[in-house]
Amino acid sequence: MREFLSPETRRDLLDLARRSLEAHFRGEPLPRLASDRSEGFGGPRALFVTLREGGDLRGCIGTLAPDGDLGRTVPRFALRAAFEDPRFPPLDSDELSRVEIEISVLTPPTEVGNPEEIEVGRDGLILELSGRSGLLLPQVATEWNMTRERFLEELSRKAGLAPDAWRDAGARLWKFQAEVFAEGEVES
Predict the structure, then answer these.
(1) Theoretical Cys-Cys bridge with 126: which of 26, 83, 84, 174, CB 3.0 to 4.6 Å?
(2) What are phi and psi of 46, to 5 degrees?
(3) Three-class DSSP category at 7
(4) pTM to 2 decimals?
(5) CATH number of the domain at 110-176, out of 3.40.50.1980, 3.40.640.10, 3.30.1490.150, 3.30.70.270?
(6) Quick check: 52 and 91 in contact, CB under 8 A?
(7) pLDDT tens profile 98-137
C-alpha cells in the first residue's frame, strides 16, 4: 500500500492522540494540531485508534464513516478507544504513561468476490450477514499468525456469528488496507 502520510504528519497525529488523552485527565478541552496541515491528509479517512499496554490490547475503536479530517477524528477515537471499548474497563490516569498508541488509516473497502483474493497481512476484512457485522484490521492476522481461513473464522466470531458464517451465501465480505503507525516506530 502506498503511504500517503509523511513521517512528520504521523508523529503529529500520534502526539495529538496522546495529548487528547492527557487533556481528558486534566479536564481540559481537546487539543488541536499546532499547524493546519490537513491538506496533506487526503480528506476524511476511515481510521482506528488502538491502545496497547505492555503489548496487550487495551482498547480499539474506529470508524468507517469519517465526518472530518484526521486532525479532528483522531482525538475523538483516541478517547473512545480509552473509555468506550466494551471489552475493557475505562482507562485510568495511572495507566496513561504505560499505554502505547497506534493509528490505522484505512483505504476505502472493496467487495471480495473470492476469498482467495484476500492477502493475509495486507488486507483487513469486514463481514456483514444477517444484520450483524465485524471488522478485523490487517495487523490482527499477522500478530496472531493466522491463515486466511482462520482470519475469516475470527472475523465471523467478531461479528457474533458461527466461525464458518463467512461461507454463507448471504455473507458479504469487503477488504481494505491500512497505513499503520505507532508511537516509537515513526521515523524522524
Answers:
(1) 174
(2) -65, 145
(3) helix
(4) 0.90
(5) 3.30.1490.150
(6) no
(7) 999 999 999 999 999 999 999 999 999 999 999 999 999 9
